[in-house]
Amino acid sequence: MSFIVHYKKSTLLHSIFLIFILILMVLISSSCTKQEDNTLVIAKQYGIAYAPLQIMQEKNFLDAYLEDTVNVEWVQLGNTTAIREAMLADGLDVGFMGIPPFLIGLDQGMEWKMMSGLSESPLGLITNDPSIKSLEDLVDAGKIALPQPGSIQHILLSMEAEKKLGQSNIFDHQLISMNHPDGYQALLVDDTVVAHYTAPPYLFKELKEQDAHLLASGGEGMGEPFTFIVGVCRESFYEDTKQYDAFQCALEDSINFLYDSPEEALDILSQAYEIDRETLRSYLYDEQMVYTTNIKGVTRFIEFMYAQEYLNKQWEVKEVIWKEK
Questions:
Q1: pLDDT digits (tens, 9 = 90+) for 79-124
Q2: Which residues contact 77 (CB under 8 A, 6 or more apart)?
Q3: Which end of the chain, N or C, is more open, meaning fewer C-beta atoms within 10 Å of its C-beta?
Q4: Rounded distance, CA 233 to CA 202, Å?
């Protein structure tokens, strides 16, 4: 049995790595490789967990710290794999993602570390099938949509499966990779997709749908508070004190702005996210949404992912977070 479990996880990680290499080849062969052109490129994804970055961009906080001596470019990528490969291809300076995919990249040879937290957030596994009332009911019941194998959603599901069913990879053969908007639509209209592991705003929207209910929460699986999104960079950016310090200061300013100027923040973000102002207010300032540069849960993720063979090495915290300057 242990051989089978090991084989399945090894196969899964091998598949992730192959996707990793294929996208890298495409990126390297393209003309979009970042050049030594005094440009700072920052990648984000869609969702209110990235709200401080949207504020930073709209308010030009980073540009102000850099005194317009550096050209700041923002790119929005669809998933963590794209961010990881773009950085590996020297197309990015700073990227934002969940801790587990960052750890997998580090474990596969990426020379990067975490530089900051960004947000804590509720995450959850939702089904709209009334007959599925527990994780046990979900086994072999249909497809489970989540961003990708190795995502924070996948690892949290594995944690909950290990805790409740005694087998962390019991759902791996049911996973289907979808971004959050597609996963939301699939849960509503695709009969083969019976559950979706997602984050706000889709978590909040889906729970309002008919028969939708929560099967598992990220907090239950994790068993302790954790950071949802972290900022990562390579050593070259960490060693560039001017840009690194400017970014850290701009991020602090952006988070403070979000809390100190909520009405102006809502003006900016409701337009950017195309969500009406009061709905966004309820999402953005939900008591479970926390915007902070603190990083939580690293040791727990490492211990679980190493024990379950998602990582080859049990990393120490000092090896995965840049030392504070």
A1: 788 888 888 888 899 999 999 999 999 999 999 999 999 999 999 9
A2: 43, 44, 45, 83, 86
A3: N
A4: 28
